[in-house]
Amino acid sequence: MPSSPHLPRPHRHDVLIGLGGLLGGILMWALGVHNTPSYYGTPRWLGLVALFAISAAELLRRSRPLIGLGVGTAALGVDVLSGGLATTMLMYTDLIYAAVMYSGPVAARRIPRICWLLSGLATVVPLAIYNDPLALLSGAFVALLTVTPAWTGSVVRNHRDEAAAARLEVERVALLAELDRREAVASERSRMARELHDMVANHLSAIAIHSSAALSLKDPAATDEALGVIRENSVRGLAEMRRLIGLLRDPGDTAEPAAISTLDALDTLLEQARTNARPGGQDIVLCDERPAGAAPLPAPVELAAYRIVQESLTNALKHAAPGRVDVTLAHRADGPLEVSVISPYGDREGPRAPGSGTGLIGMRERVSLLGGTLDAGPVTGSGGTVWQVRAALPRGDESAQSVP
């Protein structure tokens, strides 16, 4: 059988209030200190019963405030008939205050209105019956007994709710700030990862490929050429690493800031790629279809295009079969900058150099930040199967606001 519901343990302050009121009331009852004579021959000892009842109701002032108020109202009625104890009335005002403070929002709004209504009735009815201005005192007494604690509880509750709302707002703002901080950290880490991969992976791939060739070739001239390429890529990779370290330094550092790669440096990149690709038999050809005298591209667009070409050539160096690698740049009218890299797609036992597998991920992130599109994969045509990377990079003002 399910266990019967039980009331929660009363708060220790409620126990102290109930116990203090009970002891004070017993003392007043023992001394015969009553507010008025008893009505309709009601015995005085019923006031003591009402005192115990309202003291018990105080234990419910937080957990069951409306039940406590109901019990207290009945006890107050018995107490008034038996002559009335001041402590009983005092505890009743506390029950009204607690009902407004700890009950639901509907009851908290209605209780003060009911108190005002009772005060009005306590004023109008005696005045109509007795036709004596002194009857107005009964309304004032009822207002003091009910309206005052209800109004006090309403004011305190409003301040409590406002403070709780302010705390929630502070917590919400702090949470949003923490989420923004985490997002900024994640974005910066992704940016750093892309830069590190794009700047260094090309050189390290070339070093790995040419070092393998130097170890396998018996021709001293070919070995010397491979070692020369290794040395050149080592120096370039070290310079790129220094530029990346410059990005990570404090703004107040006197180190030279990192240079931003642009399409003006594309010829140098392609020349280096041709040297690196020589052992693999790839021939890299650039087709620049951009109109002469066109408006300059935003720096983020140029950097993204440069990195896409760089990563595509690195992938061709590691994976492509011997043959022609076409690099194409084009943009017409107000359309996006189109970047295309097509390399031979052949069957290999494995890549010529190990990779992290994050190159395509980095390219997609760069294009996504600019609101563009990227397609990468094998394409079958009349000349056979090729690997094609095609990106469309918007050149609007929104691109200039983003840093990939």
Concise description?
The protein has eleven helices and five strands. The protein is of the alpha+beta class and 404 residues long. α1 packs antiparallel against α2 and α9 runs antiparallel to α10 (359-369).
List the helices and strands and how they pair.
Layout: H1 12-31, H2 45-58, H3 65-81, H4 86-102, H5 105-130, H6 136-216, H7 220-248, H8 266-277, E1 282-288, H9 299-319, E2 323-330, E3 337-344, H10 359-369, E4 373-381, E5 384-393, H11 397-400
Parallel strand pairs: 1-2
Antiparallel strand pairs: 2-3, 3-5, 4-5
Helix pairs in contact: 1-2, 1-4, 2-3, 2-4, 3-4, 4-5, 4-6, 5-6, 6-7, 6-9, 8-9, 9-10
Structural class: alpha+beta
Mass-distribution shape: rod-shaped
Low-confidence stretches: 254-259, 398-404
Q: Provide the spatial order of strands within the biggest beta sheet.
A: 1-2-3-5-4
Number of helices: 11
Q: Give the end-to-end Cα distance, rounded to a whole number of Å.
A: 65 Å
Oligomerization status of the protein chains: single chain
Portion of residues within helices: 55-70%
Mean pLDDT: 80
The percent range for strand residues is 5-15%
What's the main sheet like?
Answer: 5 strands, mixed
Could you tell me the radius of gyration in angstroms? 43 Å
Query: How many strand segments?
Result: 5
Q: What is the domain tally?
A: 2
Question: What's the SSE pattern?
Answer: HHHHHHHHEHEEHEEH
